[in-house]
Every structure is written in structure tokens, then in C-alpha cells.
Design brief:
Elements (H helix, E strand, L loop, with lengths): L4 E5 L3 H12 L3 E5 L11 E4 L2 E4 L10 H13 L2 E3 L3 E4 L5 E4 L7 E3 L15 E3 L6 E4 L5 E6 L8 E7 L1 E4 L3 H8 L13 E12 L9 E6 L2 E6 L13 E7 L1 H6 L5 H18 L9 E14 L6 E2 L5 E3 L2 H4 L3 H20 L1
Parallel strand pairs: 1-2, 1-13, 2-9, 13-20
Antiparallel strand pairs: 3-4, 5-8, 6-7, 10-11, 11-12, 14-17, 14-18, 15-16, 16-17, 19-20
Helix pairs in contact: 1-7
The structure holds flavin-adenine dinucleotide.
Amino acid sequence: MPGFDIAIIGAGITGLNAAHILHQAGHKVQVFEKSRGLGGRLAARRTDFGIFNHGAQYATARHPGFIQYLENAINYGTAEKWIAQQWCAQPAKQAIANDPAETWYRGHPAMNKLVSPLNSGFDIQRNIRIARITPTDHNRYQLYSFASDQDHKNRISHGEFDGVIVTVPAPQSAELLMPLSPRFDIINDVKMAPCWAVMLAFDSPSSAPFDVFSKPDPAISWIGRNPVTEAISSPAPYECWTIHASPCWSRDHLEEKPENVAKYITAITKTVFAQAGIKLPVPVFSQAHRWRFARTTSPLGQSHLASADGRIIAAGDWCLGARIEAAFQSGEAAAHAMLDALQQ
Ligand SMILES: Cc1cc2nc3c(=O)[nH]c(=O)nc-3n(C[C@H](O)[C@H](O)[C@H](O)COP(=O)(O)OP(=O)(O)OC[C@H]3O[C@@H](n4cnc5c(N)ncnc54)[C@H](O)[C@@H]3O)c2cc1C
């Protein structure tokens, strides 16, 4: 098969896995990513107090291909197994290690590094938000961004491609793809919940006997200790925690100011720690990040969606479920579907 030009929109694990497979198959792949960093919701924020994993916390793997990928990432130095002490409030107040039957993996030193083994050999254009995909007269597709967020009249072209794989969250995929074909209307049925993530750093140890406290309060779905990383401005390591507000609380406070969210969630976290018998020190750093489309609550139920010619494909975690493994599998399925379509 001759080398085709293929565009991938989004540099999360779905997009990078698809890009990696298509590049390995000999095609010219270009990835477009709206942010500066790679990994999407496998996100890490570098601060003066250490690195926070403020998106996905860990991956689990059920399928041999993804287990193999994660084990290779460990050998590559960009992943590690995480044996976390989880707090059980009921029946006894105690911390227990996570179930050895289900290994937890996380990126090393931070979650975004989980995609590093996929990122080589193809071009990635960062800080470009693709806004339109338009068919051309010669069976190809042209990609455009807007000149600016305010200026939607002037478009910037980013080239023509034989195939395009869109790997952005469902509502954003629907916006890009529904004008192209009614086949994509079904994306509107997918539901994704938001999540406010709050990052807290302490300059003295919290004395918490646990690393993880799941669903401690109706407002909070996750409290997790971040791995100790070297702080940028100080030799002393800080203790960094990520708190995820529950989907319900996040939805109710979606348009709240980040500084207010940080204040509210810090106060609830303090109460939760106090109930576990731990007095939290005053944080030296707190910041909130809103994930408008965090976790899929109602997935598509199939690995990807394709246009009639098979050369426009939608993929992402939202196809199969709210997990990193689902995203990885969707990216793989999309790449193979694209290879089939290009052979026609
Ligand atoms: C708070 C939170 C906690 C989570 N916890 C876990 C967990 O513990 N375990 C687990 O398995 N999963 C977890 N998840 C889910 C997991 O992060 C996702 O399933 C997975 O990362 C999705 O990958 P993706 O590549 O499909 O999408 P994304 O990672 O969202 O990648 C899409 C990319 O597309 C880019 N993009 C969007 N629009 C455009 C555009 N128009 N042009 C160019 N680029 C664009 C985005 O910037 C992004 O980089 C969590 C998610 C969140 C938010």
C-alpha cells in the first residue's frame, strides 16, 4: 500500500495509539493537538511545589495488548506499578493495599508520560485547535482552524489528507463531524460527566496512613496522594494531593470560579481527613482545574464510528467506556479501520 497522508486530531492516548500504528504501517501521519502538552486527560501539572496528576490517576488493564503496552512502558521508564494504601472508613478505620488481582499502573514520573512510548516518528502540531473538516473535490479532506477564538470568519488551512481520525471528547467530536455526515449524529447520545480537580500542596507531612480515599463524601469521588517529585523551587519535597469532586457536585458548580471551587473542596477535604483522625496542615498551594468532559457515563458501545468512505473516523474513550484502556483500544480499532478503508 502506498503511503497515505493521515491526520489525527487530538494527542491523548487514543490519538497517539492510532498515530503510532498508522506510522508503523508506513503512512505519513500528522497529529494536531490544541494544547501545548501531550496526553490529554492523562494530565500532569508542573508547579513550584511538585507535579500533580490532576486528570486520570491510574490505569488498569484487562486485555493482553494493553497489559503488554503498560509492561513495556515500565521497561521504557515511563510507567510504574502503584501499590496504594486505600482508606476504608467502614467497617474498621484502616488502610489496606489495593487488590493484587488488579494491578494499578501510572505514568512515571507523572501520568502524561504513559503515552511517551507511542510518541515517535510522526509530526505533532501543538497549539492548533481544528475547527472544520471539509471534503475536497479529489476525495481528500482539508483541515482548518480559526484565526482566533474571536475570529471565526478567517480560517487557517492545515493541509489536505486522505484520511482523518478525530479523537476528541464526544461533544467536541459531534461538533466537528456532524456537519460531514448524519452517520455521526449518534455521537449526541454519548454522555460525559464533568469533574473539578483540586490540587493541594503541603509543606509538612499530613501523617495520613493512606494514599487514596475513594468516595469519602457526596461531594468528593477521589482523594489521592501524588508521587513525590522534586519541587522546582525548593530542595524539600512537598506533599501533593489531588482531589476530584464528584460528577454531581462538579455539575452543580460547573461555572463556579476556580478559586471558589478550590476553597470549598479544601474545606470538605479537611473535614474528611478529620473524620479519619488526621489534622490537615494549611495548604501552601491550591488550584482547581475544570474537566468539562471528564468521564464517559453513557458510551457509544462500539470501538469507533466511520463515514461512508471509511476515511473519516471518530474514536476515543467515549466509544467503549470511561477508562484509559478503552481509549487505547478505540485508537487501535480506528487505526485498523483506516488501514482497511485506504485499501479499498
Ligand atoms: C479527572 C479524571 C479522572 C480520571 N481517572 C481515570 C482513572 O483513574 N483511570 C482511568 O482508566 N481513566 C480515568 N480517566 C479517564 C481517562 O483519562 C480517559 O479515558 C482517557 O485519558 C481518554 O483518552 P482520549 O485520548 O480518548 O481523550 P483525551 O485524553 O481527552 O484526548 C483528546 C485530546 O484532544 C485534544 N483536542 C480536543 N479538541 C481538539 C481540537 N478541536 N483540535 C485539536 N485537539 C483537540 C485535547 O486537548 C486532548 O489532548 C479520568 C479522566 C479524568 C478527566
